[in-house]
């Protein structure tokens, strides 16, 4: 089974305009790394609107093409930090839950709520117990540290409801703030909630060595390799890094993910799945991967965490 453990539905009115502008600015840099020149305006007017997918129709089609059996959709709550979206966070959570319910064999929804919101814990609880969502996504780039005591009631609730927490980690595009996203801020959380399953998204990207150092001593920490599509054009770098991640964390705590649709243009899910699936045969850089390791990463680990 292949599980995309980290994906999003993008809808213009679900995030403040400042974020779409920031995304376009960052995409210019990503494009440049693979030799494509573009302006933020090009990306803002041509590529980003293509990502909007209010019914998950595009997501499902892409997942089907890539051979992904199940996709976890994570709600992103940036409103407190960068300005509210046109659609409330409660409505966004409900929409994700409804979409997952309409495609129970393919889609799973995780709630997203900023811990600083009034009634955050109640909304999160409603998402899980009434709307059937399966976990919590935290995006601290909106302006809080993951180990701030303001977040603790959400961790306590996640533990009580027995669901995993995905935390964005790694440098993040403006207007979100990277300083809140370093994986060291998970250290207190992992220590104070040793029974809580915490997934550090993107293996913290540029801070991946810090992330795996923390994961190495905290068995309740997992990492997902979403966003690493950016490294696929550099297969030697990808293979050496992933080998180091597995050696440090263990192949049983690494999860596949795409962070779709953000990386659709440089590396669509079909390409990323093909790349990771082919690692036992095609690894370069003097490292090797076993079929069992890759199978666990592509789906077995997520299957266990999500109790599928
Ligand atoms: Zn994401």
**Helix share, percent:** 40-55%
* Major β-sheet strand ordering: 1-2-3-4-5-6-7-8
**Rg over alpha carbons:** 18 Å
SS-based class: alpha/beta
Mean pLDDT across residues: 96
Uncertain stretches = none
Number of strands: 8
- Write the CATH homologous superfamily: Metal-dependent hydrolases
Bound ions, cofactors and other small molecules, one mention each:
zinc ion
Number of helices: 13
Count of individual domains: 1
- Strand count, sense and closure of the main sheet? 8 strands, parallel
Summarize the helix and strand pattern as letters.
EHHHEHHEHEHEHEHEHEHHH
Global geometry: globular
CATH topology: TIM Barrel
Q: In the CATH hierarchy, what is the architecture at level 2?
A: Alpha-Beta Barrel
Residue share in β-strands: 5-15%
How widely separated are the two ends?
10 Å
Please report the first level of CATH classification, the CATH class: Alpha Beta
Keywords: Hydrolase, Lyase
InterPro entries: ACMSD, Amidohydro-rel, Metal_Hydrolase
Organism: Candidatus Methanolliviera hydrocarbonicum
Pfam families: Amidohydro_2
List the helices and strands and how they pair.
Blueprint: E1 3-7, H1 17-33, H2 40-51, H3 57-66, E2 70-74, H4 79-82, H5 89-102, E3 107-112, H6 120-129, E4 136-138, H7 152-161, E5 165-167, H8 187-192, E6 198-200, H9 208-216, E7 221-224, H10 235-249, E8 254-255, H11 269-277, H12 279-282, H13 291-305
Parallel strand pairs: 1-2, 2-3, 3-4, 4-5, 5-6, 6-7, 7-8
Helix pairs in contact: 1-2, 3-11, 6-7
């Amino acid at each position: 089974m292949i599980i995309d453990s980290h994906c999003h539905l993008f809808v213009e009115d679900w995030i403040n305009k400042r974020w779409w502008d920031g995304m376009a600015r960052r995409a210019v840099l990503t494009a440049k790394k693979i030799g494509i020149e573009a302006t933020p305006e090009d990306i803002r007017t041509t590529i980003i609107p293509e990502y909007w997918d209010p019914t998950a129709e595009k997501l499902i089609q892409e997942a089907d093409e890539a051979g992904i059996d199940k996709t976890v959709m994570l709600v992103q709550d940036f409103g407190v930090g960068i300005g509210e979206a046109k659609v409330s966070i409660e409505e966004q959570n409900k929409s994700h839950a409804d979409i997952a319910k309409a495609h129970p064999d393919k889609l799973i929804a995780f709630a997203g709520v900023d811990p600083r919101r009034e009634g955050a814990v109640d909304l999160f609880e409603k998402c899980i117990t009434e709307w059937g969502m399966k976990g919590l996504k935290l995006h601290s780039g909106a302006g809080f540290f993951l180990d701030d005591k303001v977040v603790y009631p959400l961790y306590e609730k996640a533990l009580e409801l027995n669901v995993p927490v995905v935390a964005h980690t790694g440098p993040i595009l403006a207007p979100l703030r990277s300083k809140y996203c370093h994986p060291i801020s998970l250290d207190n959380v992992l220590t104070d909630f040793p029974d809580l399953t915490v997934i550090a998204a993107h293996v913290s990207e540029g801070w991946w060595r810090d992330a795996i150092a923390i994961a190495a001593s905290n068995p309740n920490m997992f990492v997902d390799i979403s966003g690493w599509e950016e490294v696929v054009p550099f297969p030697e770098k990808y293979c050496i890094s992933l080998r180091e991640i597995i050696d440090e964390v263990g192949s049983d705590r690494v999860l596949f993910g795409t962070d779709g649709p953000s990386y659709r243009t440089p590396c669509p899910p079909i390409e990323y799945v093909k790349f990771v699936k082919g690692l036992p045969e095609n690894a370069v850089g003097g490292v090797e991967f076993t079929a069992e390791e890759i199978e666990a990463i592509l789906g077995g680990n997520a299957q266990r965490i999500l109790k599928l």
